[in-house]
Amino acid sequence: MESKREEEFLRYTEPGLLLRFARNQLAALVLILFGMVVILGLLTRTFLTANNIFNVLRAFSWIAIASFGQSIVIIGGGIDLSAGSNMAFSGIVTAMLLVAGYHVVFAVIVGLVATLGVGFLNGLMVSKTKLPPFIATLGTMSIIRGFCYGMTQGWPVRNLPRSFMTLGQTDVGIFVWQVPLPAIFMVIFGVLCYVLLDKTKLGYHTYAVGGNEYAAALAGINTGRVKNIAFTLSGLLAGIGGLLMTARLGVAAPTAAQSYELDIIAAAVIGGISLAGGEGSVWGALIGAAIMQILRNALVLLGFPAYWQPAAIGAVIIGAVMIDMYRKRKI
Fold it and tell me: What is the domain extent for residue 280?
């Protein structure tokens, strides 16, 4: 008799399906993304065409790649405002070397090393000099953007070789589809960052530092090293995103990726990565970047003027943060 009462009590008190679903934030984001796709498919004739879907994939791939690095930094308790400038910097360094006649592989490596160095510098300023991440990366954001203008004298770098532009303009045949190469890179780097955060000691330490830096230090974790690696990876991934963007556009401009740092951070926040640190997933950042780009695409297809896009993205960011805060209070 007593066991039956216990079973009945457990049945009525265990979390319901909706509550369990609400706890799984990634599943909720997937549902939101799926709902947007269905609604836009019903409202427009062109959204679900293969050409439009793959254009959307290509358009947010470099934002998603940069947001993977941003996610690692935010999960570790920091923030990187220099990501947009780093995207432009890698493109300009690589493009100038290509125009000077250097081999594509060498130019790409130097471009990535340049942004990796910026990320490493950010990490040093945060871990060694104890500068707040906001201030340190705000400074490097302006410095690197100034380098972009100074190196080019304000002029875009043109006449890039076709061998380089294939990185951003090539489609790869997969079954019956022609999938953009940047989207494939996006998935590859997403998997690598997922493995880093979820399957390695460094990933565990990153979550620990973001959750409680003082407790992590008492546990013997080298918090400075963790932060340095996080910012370095953010610089590298922003550089990769910038190279793909430059290869797609076929020109490296000092104004490229202007204000992209906001989109990159927004992708992470919409994807459920807590700005307080210690929580989130790179897959959430990927879905967040997809949601933003689909929203932009929807506004265009539905005939809304382009200057309404920032307002829509801002509203989505505020809504995502409010939902996350409500979820944490209630669950």
Answer: 50-261+272-285
